[in-house]
Amino acid sequence: MAKRKNYLNTPENMTVYMSKALARDLKNYAGFCNAVLSTIDYVEGPIWAMQVYNGRTSHWAILEEVGRMIYIYAGPLKPQPILPQGQFYKRVLQHKGTAVKQIGTIEYNQRMEVCIRWQDED
């Protein structure tokens, strides 16, 4: 029996991941806030939203959990935080040339932060 992959994406590790992935782009900003698991109109599934700012200028760094796209958004839409209410999401990742189907469930961690736990489908 194959070992099941199970991991938790928390605000802390997603903030670190996003700041490293956007390192060159973040040089244009004075600072950023911690990532928050959210939703936004016109984007499928949950996103990690991290506010980036420089003086009065404020934008959103967004990482799509399902599509794994990351970008800085300067439009009028604002991400809405997610509260765990039994939601689940599906995605397909490419791992070593193989499609891996995963299910993500929204939950709290020990710090009572909203996180998403991804598990491989059986």
Structure notes:
The chain starts with 5 loop residues before the first strand and ends with a strand. With 122 residues, it is mainly β. It is built from two helices and ten strands. Helices cover 12% and strands 48% of the residues. The longest helix is centred in the first third of the chain and has 11 residues, at 11-21.
Report a brief summary of the structure.
With 122 residues, this protein is mainly beta. The chain contains two helices and ten strands, in the order βααβββββββββ. 12% of the residues lie in helices and 48% in strands.
Separation, N- and C-terminal Cα atoms:
10 Å
Uncertain residue ranges? none
What is the CA-atom radius of gyration, in angstroms?
A: 15 Å
Shape: globular
Helix count equals 2
Strand tally: 10
Main beta sheet: strand number and arrangement?
6 strands, antiparallel
**Percent of residues in beta strands?**
over 45%
Overall pLDDT metric: 89
Helix content: 10-25%
Q: Order of SSEs, N→C?
A: EHHEEEEEEEEE
Given helix and strand content, the structural type is: mainly beta
Helices, strands, pairings?
Blueprint lengths: L5 E4 L1 H11 L1 H4 L4 E2 L3 E4 L7 E8 L2 E8 L5 E4 L6 E2 L6 E8 L2 E11 L5 E7 L2
Antiparallel strand pairs: 1-10, 2-4, 3-4, 3-7, 4-5, 5-6, 8-9, 9-10
Essential attributes:
globular; 48% strand; six-stranded antiparallel sheet; four-stranded antiparallel sheet; 122 residues; mainly beta; 2 helices; 10 strands
